[in-house]
Design goal:
Length: 195
Amino acid sequence: MFKITIDRYNKIISSYQERTTLTKSILNSEWNMDVTKYIENKLDYREIAKVTNDAPRNFYPSILVLVLGMIKIKHAETAEKYGCKIGEWIYEVEYPEGLIQKIPERYLEKDDSYPNKFTYGDSIVISKNAPPSFHPGEFASVCGLDRHVSKESFQKSGCPFGDWWYIVEFLDISSIELPECYLEKEESLCSNTYI
C-alpha cells in the first residue's frame, strides 16, 4: 500500500477544496454541495493511467503509471517549465520501477483495460499455485480491493504490474492481502455467506 505524507495529504485536500465548497443551509441544517471553480480533470488520485504513445520518450510511452497527485497550472513560469498552457493539469505519477515524474495531462489516458474480476462479498478460493503464505486451496470472501502498482508489491507477488489486490477473509475470520492472479471464483459457496 502507498503511504502519503501529511504535506501530500494537505495538498490533495486543498486541491479538492479549491474545486468544491461545502455550505451549510441555516434553515434546514442539511449539508449541500455547491460546485465552484470546478475544472474537470480526467484522472484522480490513485488512479491507474497509461502514458500515451505520442508522449516524449522521457515519459516512457505505453507504460502504466499510478497518479499520486495533480495541480492546475496557474502561472506562466510553471507552464513554461512543463511545456504546457496556463489552465492545463500536470500529474505527479509513479512508474513501476518507483520513478516519480510530473507529466502534462495530454500525455496520459485513463486505463480501463484491466477491470477487477471480483468485488466485495464474492466467495473465492486461493489458487493452488499461490505461495504458501497466501493459503493455497482455502476458501475466503473478498472484503476489500485496490490496484497496486508499486515496485514493492510487484516484486512481492511476481504478478503482472497493475494487478488488482484483495483483502480476503477466511472462515476462521483471519484476513490477508493478495493479488488477483492467485484468486479463483468459488461457485459452490454463496456470496456473502460463510459455512
